[in-house]
Amino acid sequence: MLIYLRVLKESFNFAINALKNNKLRTFLSLLGVTIGIFSIIAVLAAVDSLKKEIEGSISSLDNSTIYLGRFSFGPTEVPRWKAEQFPDVTYEEYQYLKRTVPDLFAASFTLNVPVATMKYEDKTVSNVEIGAITNEYYDIEALKIEHGRFFNEAESASGVEVAVIGDEIANILFGSPEAAIGQKARLYGRNFIIIGVLEKEGAGLFGNSRDTAAYLPVNSIRKIFGNNNRALFPFIIIKPEKGADQAEFVAILGQKLRALRGLKPDEIDNFFVNELKGFTDLIDNITTNLNIMGLIISGFSLLVGGFGIANIMFVSVKERTNLIGIQKSLGAKNKFIMFQFLFEAMILAVIGGLIGLLLVFIVSVIASSFAGDFEFVLSPLNLLIGTAVSAVIGLVSGILPAISASRLDPVEAIRTGM
């Protein structure tokens, strides 16, 4: 064990001397490894950050949550022309499913309405995201009220003109969340009473945030836009009871809606049951494919870096031929010589990799400072991967030079070096 530690120490000294004595040559050789490691870890960090942000934006929803409507969230075998003929889900269907589907924890009817402008006296907030929902939405999605309350079932059913708004809207229009409660804001030409303000959330991945959103009873919006407006994209959001069999629940849900719509056994569903779990699986597949593509592209940079390390090691063997001959004449075994050059190649590659990791860290800090609430994550796992890949590249690149050095004849090596 001690002899290998000595070899490692000597190899480290040789690597450092190579850096000192042949700065330009070593720099050019390590540049490939540095760029390769930078590319790989930058891709991994970017994809991890993107995945974390997406998962964070949907973390308030349980994976068992189901979106029922005429649109599919993912690829489908239903032809586009046929899907466009599907009817919208209705408020009456929402009421029927809420009454009849077993193991149902909560169901909410929603309308996707255009962004709107909210006014209070001489103050205005544009591009307000409108959540036209029933009161059960509060139980499905983890909305956190900072001041006031959410609208109740009676207010939801009757379509009372009340609103729960985001923190940013409250501050712009009323000066503070506390001051917003009880005030009337103008929206769609109507006066909505502010009954609640959500906790501050921060910007989301695509700029959307509950801080600039307003939640209204869906029946108040139905009074404004009507019941047969195809541009509103209604959905029924459903959450089963905890512990319920998801597959069985989805099957019963589909059967109930098919029966209500009078579909025959040979007819396909004219609606889509979108499971949030399927959406998260889709995200995992996308991020996995992005990682694979990034690794393949970055692999070419590492290949160039490997050739650079191999080149500098062959040069190092040639320069130290005389020293190798002397070591062998004094009793150094082939294995000792081979490990000496292998360790040196690995140390050089790891140094290049560490420089690449440092560059990724610097870029991630700069990018995070310019990206607002989006945070680039450089995880310890990615750091470990970068270091391990560097060491492997050094090992692979140093094998041939190390073997050639270990096989040198001591007499010929001394004569060649003189």
TrEMBL record:
- List residues traversing the bilayer: 27-47, 292-315, 336-363, 383-405
Q: What is this protein called?
A: Putative ABC transport system permease protein
Q: In terms of domain of life, where is this protein from?
A: Bacteria
Keyword vocabulary terms for this entry: Cell membrane, Membrane, Transmembrane, Transmembrane helix
Q: Where is the ABC3 transporter permease C-terminal domain?
A: 296-410
Membrane topology designation: Multi-pass membrane protein
- From the Swiss-Prot or TrEMBL record, state where the protein is found: Cell membrane
A Gene Ontology MF term for this entry? transmembrane transporter activity
Q: How is this protein annotated for GO cellular component?
A: plasma membrane
Asked whether the keyword Transmembrane is assigned, the reply is: yes
InterPro entries in the cross-refs: ABC3_permease_C, MacB_PCD, Macrolide_Exporter_MacB
Annotated ranges, domain MacB-like periplasmic core: 26-252
